[in-house]
């Protein structure tokens, strides 16, 4: 083990005997750097300025255990392994402290060198394992998607499908937006993403984060809509214990939790003027002042904000601060609604088909061309989310080893089937609405019958009529099989 990989152990104690044991356990071992502090206050200063991997906290130090350093560190330094040591007379307090601080273990005095060595080794192993687990979990998530994105697979049959992290697209419009987003991810500027609901704003924000130099640090998401100001402030800036009614424990806040990373603020248009001011201060100075506290902390966070309401208009009518708007809009990205990028529909539908067939463990061969035609004619008020839901539902009811056909379409989409079957340039006859509707009905019935070679059973089924109902319509409109 060389000095670069050596782990730093910080001990907080005034107990001479414990100091001696810790020195014996750690000082000569090159796997560790050892630092001793006489109080939590001193330790906090050290923590602010140096990397620390492990804390050994002596509960006999005579500080208020509820305000104990290990508890604070659970929030401020969650990845530092914590061990609590106490004399038997402090057993109950030490037990509570270990629980509240999510310590690895608490051990009672007198401790012996070999016991300390083993405890430190195991605690550090565990924190290393959880660090790796976090990385692997993320990699696993990506590799599941990578499998879906595999160039050789059926997904790419329609050609020209691209991806940006988990965003799938084939349209030139999205290619433009993604090119801008990739450029944005290489900068430290704030990003403002605009787009209707379900267009993929959050997915885009994640893609930018994971393509940026901050990708190894956390990205936290906060929806700013439908939240009162105090709660939103507390979520982002943190709060002291008791500062928020009904919440006993103190909270670090997402801005500090995401230090070094990214915070995604969704529905940014919904925040109050006072919150806008606090956010601006944070963007300018990196200042974080927890609710109920006078102390100021600093955090280095990149902001990506999203809105489905045009912020320029809110700036123009005075409900959104202009200076904040400019600050957020370092890079402006506009994701077009799905109906304006029809080339994406098939690519996305195939992607979701594969995704959900995998989820339910069903082999579905694909969509019939009729279904694809219907899917690409629909307007998608709910954008990609709506398409995703449609495909998920269709996959759920599709037969094993079969195709998704018109029968599987939901009623909203099924409506589009009929107009598609109408002959091009259909001239509807008659003057009154009733006459026009009847003429249209006659044409639909006739076209369906012709398509199905006058198989009345099938035609009735397709039109949602009974056999008798269909026969009545044939009679009423004097329809007859050609050449019959
Ligand atoms: N280009 C895309 N490729 C793959 N999946 C997408 C794409 N765009 C959106 N989605 C999927 O659609 C759903 C909605 O996306 P997302 O939550 O990012 O949209 P949003 O714009 O943030 O919506 P809202 O405004 O409602 O918050 C998600 O399940 C997402 O995975
Ligand atoms: Mg969203």
From TrEMBL:
Keywords, in A-Z order: Activator, ATP-binding, DNA-binding, Nucleotide-binding, Phosphoprotein, Transcription, Transcription regulation, Two-component regulatory system
Modified residues (4-aspartylphosphate): 58
Span of the signal peptide: none
Xref: Gene3D superfamilies: 1.10.8.60, 3.40.50.2300, Homeodomain-like (1.10.10.60), P-loop containing nucleotide triphosphate hydrolases (3.40.50.300)
Function: Required for activation of most nif operons, which are directly involved in nitrogen fixation.
CDD domains in alphabetical order: AAA (cd00009)
Keyword Nucleotide-binding in annotation: yes
Example of a GO biological process term: regulation of DNA-templated transcription
Positions of the Response regulatory domain: 8-124
Subunit and partners: Interacts with sigma-54.
Name assigned to this protein: Nif-specific regulatory protein
Molecular function via GO: ATP binding; sequence-specific DNA binding
Start and end residues of each Sigma-54 factor interaction domain: 167-396
Origin: domain of life: Bacteria
Classification of source organism: Bacteria, Pseudomonadati, Pseudomonadota, Alphaproteobacteria, Rhodobacterales
Organism of this sequence: Pseudaestuariivita atlantica
Transcription regulation recorded as keyword: yes
